[in-house]
């Protein structure tokens, strides 16, 4: 049996930074079969426990090895509505791959040898996107649980607020069972972070469009530019005849550092920066009228996926604007503690993003016109583990130094979007503004109102958001058809 993992093809490093084209090209059929055949088909497949939605990974990998792609697709779709998306963005090295028996004991993330489950999932998802449509899938006896697309349920209507992975997944689960679903989305395009946050070079928008079209084919209506809490309240939705409501509001409000000078010109939150680039196509300026002042020396503060996406987007914008690339990520711990996906850290490094570890920003410095010209930082050292289990970052007094910069992107976390919860006082929230739910049913303090995704428990992952949405949709189905 082959020991070495099959390497996934990527566009070469020089080409990458000249555009927003997808970097990872995925497996060919031959490569997928080779990688699938590496799977040991363990008696007790621990990988399944590592997947937040419990995909039967062993089964779908075996189906690929047998060239039964339709079977593999149906196996995945029983648990995961969006394999092409998860196969691209899932932090598999902390989830299913970490639980693969080929990962060395005690590793903090998956070993290199672990089966590339996410690339195999992507292969199957992309195959399905070309070969299977919603109607054939709904009637396919191989897909358990969704074959009973039953149009008599059409008199039951559910409103979904928010069209991120949580909202889309909940809508899909309900629509596949014949329930009428309307999604309300405040932005002008659906997708949530998948649309406005994650750049094309990781998740092409066509993939997202294809998954959303699939939902539309199932009869899901999507109302964009529609802010629930402003244009309609939760009460009004019920009065209009919805039997249940799912809230997938996300965590769309950026956190700032709270240090001096943070309101100077040319300091962006990563959310604003990425929204301008991804949702409003700033990289296609002047075809799209979205100005974005791109600096010559750019600093990105943070160590998560958002920081990597912002840094890699900023570097591409410099190259596309013929500016010598100069992007540095500042992180207060070391590389091992960075929460970003390992693949994205490696890609950022390969593309020329510089990293400065054990650094804490102290104060932004301006020129006479109020534009940013530098950032004073302190060096840090690692201390004892904190509540998150990671070693604390401890600033060293007197170690301050100045970094010259003319553009800073702050990517240090996101908080709950409280627009709706503030005008719905009966909806109980915790001290962070996250909605409190019964974790078994995902029901909120308001009868027949359910919630899931980042608005419950804070920033998570796409597949965790979908896992919660699946739980909520199961509760909604129980409620409508006891
Ligand atoms: C830049 C970035 C990169 C990331 N990369 C990854 C990654 O690689 N892998 C991964 O697994 N996770 C990643 N994440 C995290 C992941 O995207 C989130 O966990 C996930 O999107 C949460 O899904 P959600 O549906 O709860 O919320 P969101 O995706 O935030 O969607 C919420 C939607 O609700 C809408 N909305 C909010 N309030 C209202 C209202 N009152 N009325 C109508 N609409 C409303 C918002 O406009 C938004 O479209 C990333 C996050 C960011 C920001
Ligand atoms: S959805 Fe994510 S965690 Fe689950 S098998 Fe796919 S890559 Fe792994």
Structure description:
With 482 residues, the protein is of the alpha/beta class. Helices cover 33% and strands 17% of the residues. The chain is built from 18 helices and 18 strands. The protein has helices at 13-16, 29-36, 46-50, 57-65, 69-77, 83-89, 96-99, 117-131, 134-138, 165-175, 193-196, 205-217, 234-239, 270-279, 305-320, 342-351, 419-422, 462-480, and strands at 9-10, 24-26, 157-161, 180-184, 221-223, 244-247, 253-254, 267-269, 298-301, 327-331, 354-357, 359-366, 372-385, 391-395, 401-404, 407-410, 414-415, 449-451. The strands form five sheets. A five-stranded parallel sheet has the order 5-4-3-6-18. A five-stranded parallel sheet has the order 8-16-9-10-11. Strands 12, 13, 14 and 15 form a four-stranded antiparallel sheet that branches. Helix 10 links the parallel strand 3 and strand 4. Helix 4 runs antiparallel to helix 5, helix 14 (270-279) packs across helix 15 and helix 15 (305-320) packs parallel to helix 16 (342-351). The chain is globular. The termini are far apart. Mean pLDDT is 93; it is low at 145-149. It binds flavin-adenine dinucleotide and iron/sulfur cluster. Flavin-adenine dinucleotide is lined by residues 89-91, 161-167, 184-187, 192-193, 197-198, 227-229, 248-250, 252, 274, 305-306, 309, 341, 417, 419-420, 453-455, 459-462, 465.
Count the helices. How many?
A: 18
Largest sheet: 5 strands, parallel
In which order are the strands of the major sheet placed?
Answer: 5-4-3-6-18
Q: How far from one another are the termini? A: 50 Å
Percentage of residues in helical conformation? 25-40%
- The total count of strands amounts to 18
- Poorly predicted regions are 145-149
The whole-number mean of residue pLDDT values reads 93
What is the strand content?
15-25%
Q: Which word captures the global form?
A: globular
Could you say which small molecules are bound to this protein? flavin-adenine dinucleotide, iron/sulfur cluster
Q: Quaternary status of these chains? A: single chain
């Amino acid at each position: 049996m082959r020991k070495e993992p099959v390497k996934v093809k990527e566009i070469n490093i020089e080409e990458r930074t000249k555009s927003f084209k997808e970097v990872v090209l995925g497996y060919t059929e031959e490569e997928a079969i080779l990688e699938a055949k590496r799977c040991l088909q363990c008696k007790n497949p621990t990988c399944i426990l590592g997947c937040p939605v419990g995909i039967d990974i062993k089964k779908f990998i075996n189906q690929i090895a047998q060239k039964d792609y339709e079977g593999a697709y149906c196996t995945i779709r029983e648990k995961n509505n969006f394999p092409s998306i998860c196969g691209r963005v899932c932090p598999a090295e902390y989830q299913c791959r970490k639980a693969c028996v080929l990962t060395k004991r005690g590793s903090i993330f998956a070993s290199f040898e672990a089966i590339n489950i996410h690339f195999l999932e992507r292969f199957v998802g992309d195959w399905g996107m070309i070969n299977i449509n919603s109607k054939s899938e709904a009637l396919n006896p191989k897909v358990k649980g969704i074959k009973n697309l039953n149009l008599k349920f059409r008199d039951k209507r559910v409103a979904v607020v928010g069209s991120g992975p949580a909202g889309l997944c909940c809508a899909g689960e309900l629509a596949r069972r014949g329930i009428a679903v309307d999604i309300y989305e405040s932005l002008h395009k659906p997708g949530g972070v998948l649309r406005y946050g994650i750049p094309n070079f990781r998740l092409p928008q066509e993939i997202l469009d294809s998954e959303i079209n699939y939902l539309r084919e199932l009869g899901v209506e999507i109302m964009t530019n529609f802010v629930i809490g402003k244009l309609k309240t939760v009460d009004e939705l019920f009065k209009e005849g919805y039997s249940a409501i799912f809230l997938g509001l996300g965590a769309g409000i950026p956190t700032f550092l709270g240090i001096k000078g943070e309101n100077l010109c040319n300091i962006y939150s990563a959310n604003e920066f990425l929204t301008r680039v991804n949702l409003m196509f700033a990289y296609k300026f002047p075809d799209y009228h979205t100005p974005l002042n791109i600096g010559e020396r750019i600093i990105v503060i943070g160590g998560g996926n958002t920081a990597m996406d912002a840094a890699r987007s900023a570097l591409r914008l410099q190259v596309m604007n013929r500016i010598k690339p100069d992007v540095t990520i500042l992180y207060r711990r070391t590389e091992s503690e960075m929460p970003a996906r390992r693949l994205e850290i490696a890609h950022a490094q390969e593309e020329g993003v510089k990293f400065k570890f054990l650094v804490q920003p102290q104060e932004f410095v301006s020129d006479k016109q109020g534009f940013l010209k530098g950032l004073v930082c302190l060096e840090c050292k690692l201390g004892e583990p904190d509540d998150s289990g990671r070693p604390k970052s401890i600033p060293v007094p007197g170690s301050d130094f100045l970094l010259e910069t003319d553009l800073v992107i702050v990517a240090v976390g996101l908080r709950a979007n409280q627009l709706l919860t503030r005008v719905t006082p009966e909806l109980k929230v915790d001290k962070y503004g996250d909605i409190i739910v019964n974790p078994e049913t995902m029901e909120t303090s308001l009868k027949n109102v359910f919630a899931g995704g980042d608005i419950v428990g804070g920033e998570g992952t796409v597949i965790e958001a979908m896992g919660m949405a699946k739980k909520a949709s199961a509760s909604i189905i129980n409620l409508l058809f006891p």
